[in-house]
Specification:
By secondary structure, the protein is an alpha+beta fold. It has 2 domains: 210 residues, Immunoglobulin-like (Sandwich), CATH 2.60.40; 68 residues. It is 15% helix and 36% strand. The strands form 5 sheets. A 4-stranded antiparallel beta sheet has the order 1-2-3-6, with no helix packed on it. Strands 5-4-7-8 form a 4-stranded antiparallel beta sheet, with no helix packed on it. Strand 2 and strand 3 form a beta hairpin. Helix 5 packs antiparallel against helix 6. The longest helix is centred in the last third of the chain and has 17 residues. It starts with 9 loop residues before the first strand and ends in a 7-residue tail after the last strand.
Length: 369
Amino acid sequence: MPRILSLTLLLLSFSVLAGQELVFEQYPQQTDFLLLIPYNSINFRAGTSESVYQMSINLRNSRGRSVYSRSVQLTFQKKEWLRDTAIPHSFSQDLAPGSYQMQIRLRNRSVGGNLELQRQFRIGSTGTERGEAYLYAKRDDITFIPSVIPELSDLQALELHQRFLVQPDSIGVFSGTSKLSVLQPTSPLIIDIKEILDSSQENQLQVVFYEENIRYNMDAFLYSQWFAYGQSYSLRDQINQLRYIATQNEWQVLRQVPRAQMAEVIEQFWVLHDPSPGTLRNETRELFYQRVMIADERYTIHSRLKGWRSDRGRIYIKYGEPDEVRAEPLPLDTPPYIIWQYYTENLQFVFVDEGGFGRYTLRNSEDEY
């Protein structure tokens, strides 16, 4: 699988908190947490322009002792332009190395209903050398993390925030032919980047971290739909999805994991399949989640056959977009069929709709392995 989020530092929710994402970075004096609240998950009472939530946070150590607790009221404004963005909420705590459990509850005081996130994680003995480069936008006095670079003329501010332990020689922000450099920056770094963006064209941001003649490239942190993966699929579904990329020995272990240990085992799996250990991203995990969600969107034909469970969904998750697709939806003497060609892998998959109802099954399954 092509390289595609940090396992010990960037955590996915495995609860009913819709698409909620918890990110943390570890520094000597404190651990910084960033909670991303998807705007699409916020409910508003009909005819109102704001919604009030009560958020409570409780962090316990491995002995069950509370080491951090907080309760705060959050008010969200109803804005169409906030769709597909995340509202950030940050907090910090000095934590010793060890295992912890975080519980976050959001109670909608406007229309009722609770959303909960429970997450177990571990703080190590080493810190975050180079933190994520978070992109914060501000419009109508509302701070949000966009999924794409928003229209610049509507923004009050567009800033890049980054923390780090190692001392860089410089940090550069690139957009097309424009560049903004900060020499000998200090942490935390906050850069106003509106001046280097061109509102007349689509902007792509890249952050470059220069350290002792070594160049580290990273993308600006934007909100992504794949953050909803943990809410969309049960732990059992997540285990079954891993079957597509796990070895036979790995699958024999995964298929027998008790429910209480599933979340931990999934995390361990991705630690072993991290193409860049020690960095803030596991690209393989990110791409896998994206493919699962795309497969569901494209190939689900009814509620009892999710797209990721279908033959086309499985092949898509394993191999990605085919290089060429040939289809014959109305052949004369044979059922409808679709052919996917992967030139790099020298693979060809033939899917046939035997029943004529859109359920394409893999004809040459022996070629999959």
